Amino acid sequence: MTLRFGVIGTGAIGREHMKRIENKLSGGKIVAVTDVNQEAAKQVVTQMKLEADVYPDDRSLVAADNVDAVLVTSWGPAHEANVLGAIEAEKYVFVEKPLATTAEGCMKIIEAEMNHGKRLVQVGFMRRYDKGYVQLKKAIDDHFIGEPLMVRCAHRNPEVGESYTDDMAIHDTLIHELDVLHWLIDDEYESVSVSFPKKTKHALPHLRDPRVVTLETKGGVLITAEVFVNCKYGYDIQCEVIGEEGIASLPEVDSISFRKRATLGTNILMDWKQRFIEAYDVELQHFIDSIKQSGEPSGPNAWDGYVAAITVDAALKASNSWQKQFISLKEKPAFYSVKKENSHEAML
Ligand code: NAP
């Protein structure tokens, strides 16, 4: 069986995902596309030589009989309506982050999915599929470093443009750490505070950069996450977990080491797209495979999207008030409890 995708939003990541579904992955095919810019949608179909119909809007696309799954890669504020429309049409959905831009929006999706009665939605938190994070999680789950006590991580980009707002440091950049860290240590966030060291001269006037986000978990683990989006030297993701018996760190990206002109060195990526390129492949392949095998996606779910949204809101408040904010989640429905045999770690 081939999973037939309809794509909402044919911008940058939409095209990347369409290419991987058509050319790299197995078991998926693009049969429908739409974009608010209809010309762009038509152009993608022609350029990629797709056998796909162009629809005038998301409603008509999700209703198409030949669409089994909807790939939502429109801009963030449209995700909630796109996902709710797909659930209403009883279609599977792979939605890029964020699930919705508000916690209320995420709850509406959760309620719609639970009313449907089985899981339809997977959120594009691809770091959970990165080999390095999977190894780190295994080391923690196997108690290789004992109980985790502290986590130190960093999300650094060489630079950002004028359109990158101060809040984007949290809802666009930090959101990946917010998702992967609670998954990694299997704990819930309790509070968040944000502090701002001396500002780099490379940041534009409207942006506070760098910043350090401190998260406390219910289990007492202290996490510090640096977000530094004009670090100049490269795209660099760091994560170190300090446990009772030792320390485990995210592996460095594979690269030759070199000795040249009195230097022992190794290259650092500059382009963020390259860093998680394999993880993007694995997450979408897993979406396709788990639907085929069990009739439901089993990757990051709508509850994970809600946890990220609540924590983003608190971190934004903390950034703007300079005060610690407490994070209060609703009770997790049993519907979203992970079945270990279906979890993606078991499939990697
Ligand atoms: P983008 O290049 O701006 O693409 C978004 C596309 O969707 C644009 O063509 C836009 O049209 C279109 N669009 C907007 N609203 C729509 C709607 N209601 N219906 C149909 N099409 C609509 O943005 P992007 O970089 O691809 O990002 C898309 C999403 O992916 C964002 O939520 C972003 O956060 C997420 N993302 C995730 C990752 C990751 O690492 N997981 C990486 C990159 C992006 P116009 O241009 O005409 O507005």
Can you walk through the features of this model?
The protein folds into two domains: 3-127 and 277-347, Rossmann fold (3-Layer(aba) Sandwich), CATH 3.40.50.720; 130-271, Dihydrodipicolinate Reductase, domain 2 (2-Layer Sandwich). It is built from eleven helices and 15 strands. It has helices at 12-24, 38-47, 58-63, 79-88, 103-116, 131-141, 168-185, 272-275, 277-294, 302-321, 344-347; strands spanning 3-8, 28-34, 53-54, 69-72, 92-95, 121-123, 148-156, 189-195, 211-217, 222-228, 236-243, 247-249, 257-260, 263-266, 325-326. It has a seven-stranded mixed β-sheet with strand order 12-11-7-10-9-8-15, covered by helices on one side. A six-stranded parallel β-sheet has the order 3-2-1-4-5-6, sandwiched between helices. A two-stranded antiparallel ribbon has the order 13-14. Helix 1 (12-24) crosses helix 9 (277-294), helix 4 runs parallel beside helix 5 and helix 6 (131-141) crosses helix 7 (168-185). The two termini are 22 Å apart. The mean pLDDT is 96.
Instruction: Give the CATH topology of the largest domain.
Output: Rossmann fold
Which CATH top level class of the largest domain fits?
A: Alpha Beta
- Helical content class: 25-40%
What is the level-2 CATH architecture name of the largest domain? Answer: 3-Layer(aba) Sandwich
Q: Could you spell the SSE succession in H and E letters? A: EHEHEHEHEHEHEHEEEEEEEHHHEH
Mean residue pLDDT: 96
Question: How many structural domains does the protein architecture include?
Answer: 2
Low-confidence stretches: none
Corresponding CATH superfamily of the largest domain = NAD(P)-binding Rossmann-like Domain
What would you call the structural class? Answer: alpha/beta
Tell me the strand percentage band: 15-25%
Distance between the termini: 22 Å
Tally of extended strands? 15
Tally of alpha and pi helices: 11
> Can you summarize the main beta sheet?
7 strands, mixed
Largest beta sheet: strand ordering: 12-11-7-10-9-8-15
